Prior knowledge:
By secondary structure, the chain is an alpha/beta fold.
Amino acid sequence: MSAQTSSTAGAFRTAVVPAAGLGTRFLPTTKAVPKELLPVVDTPGIELVAAEAAAAGADRLLIVTSPGKESVAAYFRDDSELVETLEARGKGALAEKIRRAPGLLAVDSVYQYEPKGLGHAVAQAGPALADDEQAVAVLLPDDLVLGSGGGDSGVLARMAEVRATHGGSVLCAFDIPREQISAYGVFDVSDTGDDDVKQVHGMVEKPDAEDAPSTFAAAGRYLLDRAIFDALDRITPGSGGELQLTDAVALLISEGHPVHVVVHSGGRHDLGNPAGYARAYVDFMLQHPEYGEDLRGWLTDRLKD
Ligand code: UTP
């Protein structure tokens, strides 16, 4: 069941994907190719994230882009000429792959003219929402959040259920071993009646393991009440002179706005740096019906060396 039908109160229609960053960890490639278009096997990360949003009931992807990165939104345009050529050559399966992205959901874009931080990027989406949209999903395209239990039950649909129950805004967390926690933004939480739902009281960026308020680390999925846009207007630049989305969430918490996290038990990949990207690529390759077995054999031999 989609988020739209499972709980109207928690539902969202627009999924915002901030994609206006500089992608410095992938330089020099990102001089010419936006990192959102780097392939995981043969499919750009942004399509995987768009598919996740569509599966959770979103009907519009709103890409926050920057001058020079128009190819990210252009990727979702129909290419009927190419589809026809492939079909005429008997390559129906390839034609189907090309139809997939444009068929997922409607795609629009807004500009962030300068990379002034994730909060500033999300703020650019505010004026593009319809008056009756009370909540918006934000998906960081660097972060692949996989379904739990090996299935495709995505975290966003669960987040929409939690918003329907508790109101306010809902974020996504992973339970990380304490010895690794200092690489993450960490939530200060208390329990609720549901094991996978915690109430958030605050957040600490990259704490020392012994100071971390919990082992629940932030992931790049947010279901934000529309109040976030007003909060984004009121915060001042934080670390690095950037407007931080987490500062706006913290402001809402301080004003009594309910914020919860869903602790997701599925997998995750960080496509935002070469090491995480390589893991994701290998993981998806190993599961691929055509390439998986061959790669497994090659890797096994390679690792013997
Ligand atoms: P990151 O910091 O991971 O991405 O931001 P980046 O800035 O592109 O990459 P590096 O750090 O230089 O390698 C998380 C997400 O937020 C977007 C990025 O595009 C990325 O998808 N973002 C970040 C913006 O849209 N605008 C910003 O000002 C900052």
